[in-house]
Amino acid sequence: MQRRKPRTAREKYGEELRLRRAAAGLTQEQLSEQVVCSRTHIAHFEAGRRLPNRDDARRIDRALGTDGFFERWLEDLESKYADHFASAAQLEQQATLIRQFALTLVPGVLQTDAYARALFRAYSPNHTAEQLDEAVAIRTKRRHVLDGPAQPVIWTLLDEAVLRREGGGRHVMAEQLGRVADLAQTGRLRMHVLPYGVGAHALMESLLTLMSFEDSAPVAYVEGFLTGNLMDDPALVSTCQTAYALALSDALSQQESLALVRAAAEDYAHGQQ
What is the pLDDT, as a whole number, of residue 223? Predict the structure, then answer.
């Protein structure tokens, strides 16, 4: 007999929300109207894929008459990620399909320890060793989504600038690009590169991550400096999906992309970049 996987704290939070909502005689749609969010948000909350922010939790308590219960519980579930990325990080761990585009940096879920450390060092001028260690550990913990042999399915589209922007020195870049190439070659990752020769393309203004799930609607996430936007509006997500498809159509083939990444890694390893 197969043992049931233990529920996470977020899943317990979501299950309690579902039970309290049902007891109050509300549908997800009706609760979403009182919380002032989409029904998809409520579905993600109840599935444990996403946590409400404090304002949403306060409105949930008011709608369900739970006297601050869900707002107080949040204190034990607060994310270690930046506020603008926390919800996207939760969803990343639950997605069955992730399609990501990187404009200048290797995506966080693929970063090596040394590459991540170089990035944090670059924009944290007054850091301590302990702060860097903690930031790197939080970032690289996201790699656990790659532990499964099949899910999530991951597509990674890289602008060529990602290969040429040196982060941490030649050795670090050689290791980082070698890791990406290894994941692609073993089939764990579907990887394509948008070469400089393409010129303007549909995603040149921003990084983009598209996530799909087994039992709920897809989402899109875009990010800038100290800010991020997680979208679940169907029209906006569809527009993002179209832009990704357009950019992908301009990219090199899998084999050509793999060869380019391998060549860049070799150039870094031998000091030719």
Answer: 92
